[in-house]
Design goal:
Elements: E1 3-15, E2 23-37, E3 40-49, E4 53-62, E5 65-72, E6 76-81, E7 85-92, E8 95-110, E9 114-125, E10 128-141
Antiparallel strand pairs: 1-2, 1-10, 2-3, 3-4, 4-5, 5-6, 6-7, 7-8, 8-9, 9-10
Pfam families: DUF1934
InterPro entries: Calycin, DUF1934
């Protein structure tokens, strides 16, 4: 797969369960890579996780499916499929925990040199609701 350098603006919002007005929000501007293979779009970048350390991310989006892979600090693998509850894993210092994500939105709008990806899902870790996760990735090639 051929990839190209890109600036990726990543916005993460998590609404606490039962408190729709309470949000944890993180915004980062990162240098990464964007590529295509078949009908899939790939975003690849590294980011620092507060109080944990560096992590390498791969986000794959293809139609009504997506996959979030994080390696390094707090490893994670979370498949997403619109309207389905999918099981994944989340790594901590004490071991791996099961995650479940029920996806509402997987949306991408891309052109040759820029694009937007939006993922929205309800997440639970080890049976406890984390809340609604809203991830927005905006990228520009070059």
């Amino acid at each position: 797969m051929k990839t190209r350098d890109a600036e990726i603006v990543f916005i993460s919002r998590i609404c606490d369960p039962g408190q729709s007005r309470q949000q944890q929000k993180t915004t980062a501007v990162l240098q990464g890579r964007v590529g295509r293979s078949g009908s899939s779009l790939y975003l690849v970048f590294s980011a620092e996780i507060a109080d944990v350390g560096p992590a390498d991310y791969t986000i794959r989006v293809s139609g009504k499916e997506a996959l979030i892979i994080r390696k390094g600090a707090s490893p994670m693998r979370q498949p997403l499929m619109i309207g389905q509850t999918m099981t994944g894993t989340y790594g901590t210092q004490i071991g791996h925990m099961e995650t479940k994500a029920t996806t509402e939105i997987i949306d991408s709008d891309t052109s040759d040199d820029s694009g937007v990806v939006r993922l929205v899902y309800d997440l639970s870790v080890a049976g406890q609701s984390v809340g609604k996760v809203m991830l927005d990735y905006r990228y520009k090639i070059g």
